[in-house]
Design goal:
heterodimer; A: 370 residues; 8 strands; B: 466 residues; alpha/beta; 4-stranded parallel beta sheet
Chain lengths: 370, 466
């Protein structure tokens, strides 16, 4: 009997099981929300995934209009369809125009029992960290008051340590993508990442250790022509990566909000966990919403290309995202200046247009292989 | 209207036209023929700006008496100031700083620096000639900027990508008013390869913590400017600028009191173009104070004589969002066709007009408050209450009949409030028209298309309200 695929697990049933064990999921939509703080007591962070809803957003279009990004519209539609009722609260980050307006509309339409928005600075210097630290302290108090949890500083430090342990385990797996023949595909890895951001820490520990055990026995599942890096904002469907890989590419690096780069970077700890979380959020995330991290973002991309031996880059911003739209033109210019093949693929949040995607990727792979 | 009044109105127009013409012609005289030819070659948009007297035609058409005098006076203020700004193309260019429209220039003036507002051309050019920024929008899109990004930053980026920006030495910007505007400055910096400072406006800014945070941002900005430009802070000069600004703001408040009257003694460009120019481009200029003083006199004179700016004033409205840049004539048309009077716009309405000039700290806090709560900045940042509370307050305070939203297709964060807006207006019984159009690009929705939307609304909704 062949060994079972360690990447083949049901995220939904694990989520259900966690909820049955009285764990409390809190929805969040952006990496600037510190996951560690949502792991206190019975709470656990659930990164809202509404990709299945992306087919139709009729109600959300009325409120958010058709010119906001389909990620926010899909979430609002899913909420209006009662698909997110299992969440006990929402935490937003004022990170971009669209997510801010999602917060406004969600508040107006559904009035959730717990709905908090974090005021995230657009800079990462000491004043900004200090500002964001105060925000996190206020947020912690709000969580404590609403869910009646005693949140101690040492508990948060402990959660940060656990987060770091998990990220180290993830890194041990992810680093194998730098091998000439990685033992898993990009779509398999992305299934893991989707679970990573939406399941309790303990469930993920089990999954990661099982994968780590079985990896030595695996060989590269794809006969690929080129190693590809994907750069994007939020990408929730592994099928999108699967479609790219079905054309003979291997996605070896995922520089997007729901990917591992740079999210698996551990959080440096001091004796002030609020400061640690604030600094980590502002200085580690590589979102183009930040006004003073452009060099860091470009360096991160270039270093990733080198360490993961990337042959070509696909930039896939979600349509109507202004910050990624403008950033994409800058990344394009940067990569061209380094003679790195690059394909720009504007997409919707949900997976659609597989045929068109395949045509573009095939043409790109021909260019890369030349 | 008597023949004497008609002659008077014609005299107002021609006097103003002549003054503006002289001001325009002084520029090539000051610069000399060789430099002027070089400038026209390097900055082709100068050809468009040379037609700035067209604005006079647009804003005086169909307007009479004091209303015509007021709108002509506003253009008379804009033209010489614009020509002075154009002097910056060739003189003291080592002191020239590119600043975003949401970062008012008081501090730069106080530091002895010259200014060039990045968005100035994107705002003025379509006012003068509807199609004049299309070329720059196309340049930005061809460089990879998505078509759905706001056309104001797109036009601004296009001008810079086409190397038609004056020789600026530093950039000053912020995260206002929107993601597209904020993101565009990284491209601008990369293209110009000069130092840039970006101010960070918090999400929630109606509190002391935010004012302190942002005042500190301004302090850091001053230190940065002193390091990166020849400018040095002169606090006494800043005080003088702020005090002049306060005087101008006091007159503006008087003007607002006057236009609350029904019928309004002045309207449209006399109210919004004066604010747009004097508070954003030339704050601290005594000429601005003089202009507002004159506007108040004209308004009060009309009130005393019970003369309406729009003789058949039937409906009063606020214009939400920036004015329709490429279709400035819309409101003189609406006045004539429907008696629709534009009382005020969201860009002019500023809740915190006075700066405490007693100390350096208080001035910085006052400026911090003004920048954070500046029109558009406060409506597109922060929670939706910032948007709706002001809108409904203005509706009541100015005794309006309807709300007109300039639904610029590139303004996603206001479009994302349209659903709530419709429901709130329905509950309050307020007629609302959201005009679908693009701020700077008439190819998206033509003037005819805008007029059709107005016609449908006025004939189907508003005619049943009176």
């Amino acid at each position: 009997m062949p060994p079972t695929n360690p990447f083949d697990f049901s995220r939904e049933s694990l989520l259900e099981s966690a909820i049955e064990q009285d764990k409390i999921p809190i929805g969040y939509t952006c990496n600037y929300v510190p996951r560690m703080l949502l792991n206190v007591g019975p709470l656990f962070p659930y990164r809202v995934n509404a990709a299945e809803q992306a087919g139709g957003t009729e109600i959300a279009d009325i409120y958010l209009s058709q010119v906001t990004c389909s990620y926010t519209r899909s979430i609002l539609e899913a909420v209006m369809d009662d698909q997110q009722d299992f969440l006990h609260g929402w935490v937003f980050a004022a990170s971009c125009d669209h997510l801010r307006r999602l917060y406004d509309n969600l508040q107006y339409l559904t009035e959730p029992d717990f709905c908090h928005i974090l005021d995230v600075p657009h800079k990462c210097g000491s004043e900004a960290i200090s500002w964001f630290k105060q925000e996190l302290i206020a947020f912690s108090q709000a969580l404590s008051d609403h869910f009646d949890i005693d949140i101690q500083t040492k508990d948060i430090s402990q959660r940060i340590s656990e987060h770091n342990t998990l990220m180290t385990a993830l890194h041990n797996i992810a680093i194998q993508r730098t091998n000439t023949l990685p033992p898993f595909s990009g779509s398999e890895f992305h299934r893991l990442m989707q679970a990573m951001w939406s399941l309790p820490l303990q469930s993920m520990e089990t999954i990661l250790s099982r994968i780590e055990e079985q990896l030595p026995n695996r060989s590269c599942p794809i006969d690929f022509k080129a190693r590809i890096m994907v750069i994007s904002s939020v990408l929730d469907q592994y099928e999108w990566i699967e479609a790219i890989e079905s054309n003979g590419a291997l996605v070896v690096a995922d520089r997007f909000c729901t990917g591992s780069i740079p999210n698996m970077t551990p959080c440096i700890q001091t004796d002030d966990p609020f400061y640690d979380m604030a600094r980590y959020a502002l200085q580690t995330n590589a979102c183009p919403r930040m006004m003073d991290t452009f060099e860091y973002r470009m360096n991160l991309i270039y270093q990733t290309i080198q360490s993961y031996h990337v042959d070509g880059v696909i930039i896939a911003p979600v349509k109507f995202c202004d910050i990624w739209g403008v950033e994409t033109s800058q990344i394009w210019t940067f990569l061209k200046s380094k003679s790195i093949p690059v394909l720009r693929l504007e997409r919707e949040y949900g997976f659609s247009g597989e045929g068109q995607l395949s045509t573009r990727v095939q043409a790109f792979l021909e260019q890369v292989c030349q | 209207m008597g023949i004497y009044s008609q002659i008077q109105d014609q005299i107002v127009y021609y006097q103003s036209w002549y003054k503006n013409y002289c001001n325009i012609m002084h520029m090539p005289i000051r610069h000399g023929p060789v430099q002027t030819v070089k400038n026209l070659h390097k900055y082709p948009w100068l050809w468009q700006l040379a037609k700035v007297n067209r604005l006079l035609d647009m804003v005086t058409k169909g307007r009479q008496g004091n209303y015509r005098k007021a709108t002509a006076a506003v253009v008379e203020k804009v033209v010489p100031n614009l020509m002075q700004l154009l002097d910056n193309l060739n003189t003291d260019t080592d002191r020239l700083v590119l600043h975003e429209d949401m970062v008012p220039p008081e501090i730069l003036f106080a530091m002895g620096l010259k200014t060039w507002m990045s968005e100035l051309l994107g705002i003025l050019l379509p006012m003068v000639d509807s199609h004049s920024v299309e070329k720059y929008i196309d340049i930005a899109e061809n460089a990879g900027i998505p078509p759905d990004v706001c056309s104001l930053p797109k036009g601004t980026m296009g001008i810079i990508l086409n190397q038609e920006v004056p020789p600026v030495k530093a950039i000053l910007t912020s995260n206002s008013p929107c993601d597209g505007g904020m993101a565009s400055y990284q491209l601008i910096k990369n293209k110009l390869d000069i130092p840039m400072y970006q101010l960070d406006v918090p999400y929630n800014f109606y509190n002391e913590r935010a004012i302190n945070y942002f005042a500190n941002e301004l302090k850091e900005m001053i230190a940065w400017l002193e390091t990166n430009t020849p400018g040095k802070m002169d606090w006494d000069h800043l005080r003088a600028i702020c005090e002049e600004r306060n005087r101008m703001a006091a007159y503006e408040l008087e003007l607002w009191e006057a236009i609350r009257q029904r019928p309004a003694p002045l309207a449209a460009e006399a109210v919004y173009l004066s604010h747009l120019w004097c508070f954003n481009v030339t704050p601290g200029d005594p000429g601005g104070t003089e202009l507002f003083k004159y506007l108040v006199e004209l308004a009060n004179d009309n009130v005393q004589k019970n003369i309406a700016a729009v003789p058949n004033e039937k409906y009063r409205t606020v214009l939400w969002n920036p004015p329709l840049l490429h279709f400035i004539k819309l409101f003189s048309w609406a006045e004539r066709h429907y008696g629709l009077t534009l009382i005020i716009d969201s860009m002019s309405y500023n809740r915190q007009p006075f700066i405490d000039t007693s100390t350096q700290e208080s001035m910085l806090k006052g400026l911090a408050h003004i920048i954070m709560t500046g029109p558009m900045a406060r409506h597109t940042r922060g929670p939706s209450e910032n948007y709706f509370n002001d809108m409904f307050y203005i509706y009541t305070y100015f005794d309006l009949d309807m709300i007109l939203v300039a639904g610029h297709i590139g303004c996603k964060n206001t479009a994302a409030l349209n659903g709530i807006l419709r429901e709130k207006c329905r509950k309050k019984g307020i007629p609302v028209l959201i005009i679908d159009y693009d701020l700077s690009d008439p190819r998206v929705v033509s003037h005819d298309g805008i007029i059709r939307q107005m016609d449908r609304f006025m004939e189907n909704i508003m005619k049943n309200t009176h």
